[in-house]
C-alpha cells in the first residue's frame, strides 16, 4: 500500500485559510497579514490569499497588479481604524484578532464604521496608486471642465477617483452580492454603509495647488483635484458613527427595506451610517461579542471626553504609573538653514484602568 504524504501547514496559514471560508464582506481585511515579501504576480497566487470570495479571486486573476494595492488598503484600514478609535472603549481591536471578526458581522454601529472605512480605503488607495504610477491600467484623473479663476491653471496629476471607485466597489461589494452571504437585512446594511464610505471619499476630493512665481510670489498656481488623507476621511466617518441611525428591516411597498427604527416616517438618508443591533458597552471582556474590555487601557485623568479615566475605566478606577520620556528641547535655528536641538528627559505620570 502506497503511503500518502500530507504536508504540515504552519498554524498562521491555517488560521488565514479558515478566515477565507465563510462569506463575509470584510474577510478580505485578512490581507493585512500578508507578509511584505509576498508578491502577487502569478494567477496561482490568488487562491493562496486569505479572505477572498470567488468573485474577488476572479478579480485578482484578471487584475494581478491591483492586488498589491488592495493588500496595502487592508493594512491602511487596520492602522487607520485603530488610530481613529484609540480614545474610545471600542478601539477597533476586532480587526486585529481574526477570531473576533464575526463580531463585525452582527450589524452593530462598529461594523457600520468598518464597512464604510473599508470601502473608502480601498477606493482611496487605488485612486492614489493611479496617480503615483503604481498601476499601469490607469493614470491621472481628468482635468476639470470648468475654467479656473485668474492666476490659477489646471495641471499636475489628479487622483483618479473614478477608477478607484469603480474597481474598489467591484472588489469590496462582491461578497454582499453573493446568494449565501448572510441575511438580507445585513446585506442591505453593509451595502448601504459601504456606499456611505465611498460618498465620504467623493466629498474628500479637494483642490490642491502649487505656487509659481518670482521669489515665491505665487503669481500663478497650478492646481489639480486631490483626495484628503484617509485619516481625515476616517474622522468624518467617526462623526457619522457617533450619530448612526438604528434601523429595522420591514416591508415597504413590494419589498423589504431598511427604515429608521424610531423615525420610520422617513427613508434612510444616503449619507448616514445605519445599524441593526445595539452594541455592548465594551467595559468587560466578552469573546462572543468581540469585546476586549478596558482593563489595562491607558486613560486621560484630565480629560472629560471618551478617553477620560472615568468613562474609559467604566467606574472601576485606575492605577497611576510613571514613565521617562525623552524629547527634543532648547532648539536653535541656524542661518541658513537648519535647526539643532538638545535631548531632554522628563518624568510623566500615566494612568491605566483597573
Automatic annotation (TrEMBL):
Keywords on record: Developmental protein, Disulfide bond, Extracellular matrix, Glycoprotein, Lipoprotein, Secreted, Signal, Wnt signaling pathway
Record field: transmembrane: none
InterPro entries: Wnt (IPR005817), Wnt_C (IPR043158), Wnt_CS (IPR018161)
Signal peptide extent: 1-25
Record GO cellular component, one term: extracellular space
GO MF term list: cytokine activity; frizzled binding
Keyword Transmembrane helix belongs to the record: no
Main location, first listed in the record: secreted
Cell location: Secreted, Extracellular space, Extracellular matrix
GO BP terms, alphabetized: animal organ development; canonical Wnt signaling pathway; cell fate commitment; neuron differentiation
PROSITE patterns, sorted: WNT1
Similarity comment: family membership: Belongs to the Wnt family.
The protein's role, per its UniProt record: Ligand for members of the frizzled family of seven transmembrane receptors.
Official protein name in the record: Protein Wnt
Organism: Denticeps clupeoides
High-level lineage: Eukaryota, Metazoa, Chordata, Craniata, Vertebrata
Encoding gene, per UniProt annotation: WNT11
Amino acid at each position: 500500500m502506497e503511503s500518502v504524504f500530507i504536508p504540515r501547514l504552519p498554524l498562521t496559514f491555517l488560521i488565514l485559510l479558515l478566515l477565507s471560508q465563510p462569506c463575509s464582506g470584510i474577510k478580505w481585511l485578512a490581507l493585512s497579514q500578508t507578509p511584505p515579501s509576498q508578491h502577487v504576480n502569478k494567477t496561482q497566487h490568488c487562491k493562496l490569499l486569505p479572505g477572498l470570495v470567488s468573485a474577488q479571486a476572479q478579480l485578482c486573476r484578471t487584475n494581478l497588479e491591483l492586488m498589491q494595492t488592495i493588500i496595502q488598503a487592508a493594512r491602511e484600514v487596520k492602522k487607520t481604524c485603530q488610530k481613529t478609535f484609540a480614545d474610545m472603549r471600542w478601539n477597533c481591536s476586532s480587526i486585529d484578532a481574526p477570531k473576533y471578526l464575526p463580531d463585525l458581522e452582527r450589524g452593530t454601529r462598529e461594523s457600520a464604521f468598518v464597512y464604510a472605512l473599508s470601502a473608502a480605503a480601498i477606493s482611496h488607495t487605488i485612486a492614489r496608486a493611479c496617480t503615483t504610477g503604481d498601476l499601469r491600467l490607469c493614470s491621472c484623473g481628468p482635468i476639470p471642465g470648468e475654467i479656473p479663476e485668474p492666476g490659477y491653471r489646471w495641471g499636475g496629476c489628479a487622483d483618479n477617483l473614478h477608477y478607484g471607485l469603480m474597481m474598489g466597489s467591484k472588489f469590496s461589494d462582491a461578497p454582499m452580492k453573493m446568494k449565501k452571504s448572510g441575511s438580507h437585512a445585513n446585506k442591505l446594511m453593509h451595502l448601504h454603509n459601504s456606499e456611505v464610505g465611498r460618498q465620504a471619499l467623493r466629498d474628500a476630493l479637494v483642490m490642491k495647488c502649487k505656487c509659481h512665481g518670482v521669489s515665491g510670489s505665487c503669481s500663478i498656481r497650478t492646481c489639480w483635484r486631490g483626495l484628503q488623507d484617509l485619516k481625515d476621511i476616517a474622522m468624518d466617518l467617526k462623526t457619522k458613527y457617533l450619530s448612526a441611525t438604528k434601523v429595522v428591516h420591514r416591508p415597504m411597498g413590494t419589498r423589504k427595506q431598511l427604515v429608521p427604527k424610531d423615525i420610520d416616517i422617513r427613508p434612510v438618508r444616503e449619507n448616514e451610517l445605519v445599524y441593526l443591533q445595539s452594541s455592548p458597552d465594551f467595559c468587560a471582556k466578552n469573546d462572543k461579542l468581540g469585546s476586549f474590555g478596558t482593563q489595562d487601557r491607558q486613560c486621560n485623568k484630565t480629560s472629560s471626553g471618551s478617553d477620560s479615566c472615568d468613562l474609559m475605566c467604566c467606574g472601576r478606577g485606575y492605577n497611576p504609573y510613571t514613565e521617562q520620556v525623552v524629547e527634543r528641547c532648547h532648539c536653535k535655528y541656524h542661518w541658513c538653514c537648519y535647526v539643532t536641538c538638545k535631548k531632554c528627559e522628563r518624568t510623566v505620570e500615566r494612568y491605566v484602568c483597573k
